[in-house]
Every structure is written in C-alpha cells, then in structure tokens.
Amino acid sequence: MLLPLGDPQAPRSALKLRLVLAVFGFVVCASAAASFAVLDVPLVLVLIAALFAVIALVDIAIIINRMRGGNWFSKLIGR
Questions:
Q1: Start-end of H helices in 1-79
Q2: 46: Cβ–Cβ under 8 A, 6 or more apart, which residues?
Q3: Per-domain residue ranges for the chain?
Q4: Is-contact 25 56, C-beta < 8 A?
Q5: pLDDT digit of tens for each residue in the chain (79 aa)?
Q6: Under 8 Å between Cβ of 27 and 53
Q7: pLDDT digit string (tens) for 40-62?
Q8: Among 35, 29, 79, which Cα is nearest to 54's?
Q9: Cβ(52)–Cβ(29) below 8 Å
Q10: How far apart, in whole angstroms, are the C-alpha atoms of residue 33 and residue 65?
C-alpha cells in the first residue's frame, strides 16, 4: 500500500516475531541441553545450552510484558 507523501503511518511493532524467535530458541536450547545430558556429552556443553535456554525464557518474559504494555523500568526508577 502506497501512502501519499506527508502521511506518516504508525510504526508497527515486531514483538510477535521476536516472541516466535525466542520461543524457537528456547525449544532448541532446552532440547539440546536435555539431549546432551542423555547422550553423556561433557557437562560444559550441557550447562551452556541450559544457560541459553534460561536467557530465552527471560527474553520471552520481557517480550510478553512489553506486549501487555508494561514498562517495568519506569516503575523501577519511579518515573
């Protein structure tokens, strides 16, 4: 859709795409950690995959909070 000049369109958020990618990353990292643990891969690799899974979970929580319109940082610093 072409917009006439001078008619700005509100920017659309990419939070849904970011959520899909974060869920995919969590599934991949969690299954990798479980597979590594079952296959008796060195503990370092299991812990790295588990750490990435936890990071993906934190990212999912932040994305959901932003999708709900939450701004936890402003509440944290009192603005």
A1: 15-38, 43-67, 72-77
A2: 33, 36, 37
A3: 15-77
A4: yes
A5: 565 666 566 666 788 999 999 999 999 999 999 999 999 999 999 999 999 999 999 999 999 988 888 666 666 665 5
A6: no
A7: 999 999 999 999 999 999 999 99
A8: 29
A9: yes
A10: 26
